[in-house]
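BUG: 3D viewer hangs when loading the predicted structure for this chain

Environment: internal workstation, default settings.
Expected: structure renders.
Actual: progress bar stalls at 90%.

Input used:
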Amino acid sequence: MGYKLIALDIDGTLLNSSNQITENVKEAIRKSKEKGVKVVLCTGRPLKGVENFLDELNLKEEGDYVSTFNGALVQDAHTGKPISHLTLDYEDLCDLYDLSVEVGSRSHFYDTRTVYTFNRDVSDYTILEAYLTGVHLNVTELDEVPKDIAMSKFMMIDHPEILNECIKKIPEEYYEKYTIVRSTPFFLEFLNRDANKGAGIGLLSKKLGINPEEVICVGDAGNDKHMIEYAGLGVAMGNATDDIKNIANYVTSTNDEDGVAHVIDKFILNR
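Structure tokens produced before the viewer hung:
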């Protein structure tokens, strides 16, 4: 099988536990590109939180693409032009904020460039998210949010044990209205119901004339589920959650053991 596209999650997959890309992974990605394989970063982060990695991996050339906000936004990495942006509106924001209050979780949300929170006592997890992604943090009030906001995602954020209890209280109807994914033990993310990493990679693959059987997707967490199921070869990192390992076609080594490089060497470079 000749694979034509490999989609890589970032946190826990591309990055090691020191939040770095190892030289072995960089070299494997470079050789994939030389072979004509599309290498697509597919992440829950906003674009600003990805740009340094795109530069580091030379993935902003003509013909390069990136998928952010868990597949809600897919764009040309060279020009920045969106291919697809599936959003939530102000009514969704009000609905999801009310839900977060009802179940007892703090929250924040994104447009494309800013993370907003209504919590005056800003969560440490919101601060961490803003720091890791490099986006501007805006502490605001609901009635100050523009009514025409195009929201990329809404997130419940809290300590894992608190979030576990909050999730139990979410009515089933919300799982029909939105795509809901748990990207980390402390983040639960709400997206447009048609948005997920698998849908984003599927849309891009179709645009490029690439079949699912010619796609590899690599990830470690709940928000990677859809793309691992979509791919001809769905790969779980050695450090992935058990749920992700159980649906994967192959389990590679961990992110601290060059797991991405191992996948590329075995299935793309055939060495």
